[in-house]
Amino acid sequence: MANIPIWPGSSSFFPGDTPFGFYDNDFQFQTDTDKFAKFAAQRLGYPLVEIELQDLNFYTAFEEAITTYGNELYAYQVADNLLTFQGATSSIGPANEELPQENFAEIVRLSNQYGTAAGVGGTVTYHKGILPLETGKQKYDLNEWAISESIEGRIEIKRIFYESPPAIMRYFDPYAGTGVGMQQMMDSFGWGSFSPAINFMLMPINYDMQKIQAIEFNDQIRKSQYTFELINNQLKIFPIPIQRGIQSLCFEYVKVDEINKPYHDRNGREIITNASNVPYENPNYTRINSVGRQWIFEYGLAIVKEMLGYVRGKYSQIPIPGSEVTLNQSDLIAAATAEKTSLIERLRAYFDTTSRKTLLEKKAAEGEAQNKTLGQAPMTIFIG
Q1: What is the mean pLDDT of residues 56-62?
Q2: d(Cα 100, Cα 79) in Å, to the nearest integer?
Q3: I want to staple 160 with a disulfide (CB 3.0 to 4.6 A). Which of 46, 123, 141, 251 is the partner?
Q4: Percent helix / strand / coil, the chain, rounded to 5
Q5: DSSP-based three-state secondary structure for 338
Q6: Residue 224 and residue 365: Cα distance in Å, rounded?
Q7: Nearest CA among 141, 115, 138, 108 for reference residue 254
Q8: Residue 362 and residue 365: Cα distance in Å, rounded?
Q9: What DSSP assignment string belongs to 51-69?
């Protein structure tokens, strides 16, 4: 036991004395390190009790306590703001001194997925295809069409444009279904000598509307409706194509592999994907307030107590003249473990009270209480 170094009662910190050197160049850290060593030694009984530790042990415990505080703090910050961070470029720099700004990035990403599925937006490209129609052929395999067009992977049809020709395209057709030819109608208005091209300017607008309605009604009564049936990219169209009818059918499709991509496009950027790569660094010790430093001192003391327990555990008993002395290593380790657990729980409970959700709930409760109080106050009576 006599060969074990004993705490001399004072220390003098120099940069490089800690294992990692995270805070060695911080002036406040340099000042507080020796203060912590003295604080921890005296809390353990020095000078009444010899402390079997050296200054490097105290410095190590102090560095670990600061790092643990930072890890707990930033882990909570990440959990509270992960939706804000995800997708942002990781080159934004350390987030320690930044104030997270809420945004709608995650909502927009989710909306894009719904937009893609609904065909009203999104980030997936809608490709266009043209299917030549054959006279008398009613069924078409769009999977075969994709193979013939050398399209890799499966396709999903989103829109099919197969409708009757617009009535306006047949507006000048003398036999479009009105029962009266265009020339005869112009004659009935006394405009037979005018060119048909000017009848828009000469006729009332309600006539144009009635004419178009007559054409559409004629199609509806006398012809088959233009429609289709699509099952597993097997297309069946109505009516059956005729020789002088629609010659081709247009449609829009997406590639299934593009819809079901498991990851977002990085576009060559390094982005934040999860809690492990949010750019937080070790805390700036100088900027930690007195509340945080007090926690660090207490947690560092628990680490020192644990260290001392392990050192004394090497010598469970020490012989003295006529007897033996049993050391308290088990008590030190048990107490240190309990204190560390209690301090972590206390810190997390404190962070819980400062979360965005808790603060918003508190504000809402305050607003409700104020409204209730104001509702009980009598209204001012004005006398004119």
Answers
A1: 97
A2: 12
A3: 251
A4: 50, 10, 40
A5: helix
A6: 64
A7: 115
A8: 5
A9: ----HHHHHHHHHHHHHHH
Residue 41 CB partners (closer than 8 Å, separation 6+): 7, 9, 51, 53, 58
Q: What's the pLDDT at 193?
A: 57
One-letter amino acid of 181: G
279 prior amide bond cis, ω within 30: no
> What does each C-alpha distance from 205 to 175, 193, 195 come to in angstroms?
20, 21, 18
pLDDT of residue 372: 87
Q: Minimal CA–CA distance to 47: which of 12, 11, 6, 13?
A: 6
> Contact, 5 vs 13, CB < 8 A?
no
By CB atoms closer than 10 A (0-12, 13-18, 19+), residue 252 is middle
Inter-residue contact 304 to 40 (CB < 8 Å) = yes
Q: Using one digit for the tens of pLDDT, what is the confidence trace for 109-135?
A: 778 777 777 777 777 888 999 999 888
Domain range list for the chain: 27-100+275-371, 122-259
Q: State how far the Cα of 98 lies from the Cα of 280, in Å rounded to an integer.
A: 10
For residue 192, give both structure tokens.
């037979």
Rg (CA), the chain: 41
Tokens found for residue 312: 């004394």
Q: In the chain, which residue ranges form alpha helices assigned H by DSSP?
A: 27-43, 55-85, 105-118, 142-148, 182-188, 199-202, 205-222, 256-259, 290-313, 329-353, 356-376
CB of 131 within 8 A of CB of 116?
Answer: no
pLDDT of 87 > 50? The answer is: yes
Whole-number pLDDT of residue 120:
75
Give the span between the Cα atoms of 274 and 3, in whole angstroms. Answer: 50
Mean pLDDT score of the chain: 83
Return the SS3 of 296: helix
Given a contact cutoff of 8 angstroms between Cβ atoms, the answer to whether 89 and 271 are in contact is yes
What average pLDDT score do residues 149-165 get?
86
> pTM of whole model > 0.70?
no
More confident residue, 23 or 318: 23
